[in-house]
Specification:
Elements (H helix, E strand, L loop, with lengths): L5 E7 L2 E8 L2 H15 L6 E6 L4 E6 L4
Antiparallel strand pairs: 1-2, 1-3, 3-4
Amino acid sequence: MSSDRYRVTATSAGRPVITGWWDREDVARGKFRDWVGQYGSLPGARVTLRDEETGVTLTEWPEEA
């Protein structure tokens, strides 16, 4: 198993803009916040943080209604 457990992905209009993997959740959560600020104004922007070991989406922006 890879040590890069946490994946953050930013998409715009359903297409990937950038993806990164980190081994520490706190670092990945910081990157998630950064990417919401950097990519959140793109058309149809979505940023997700996923735990690849468990398959669970930990958080996403914007939140589902």
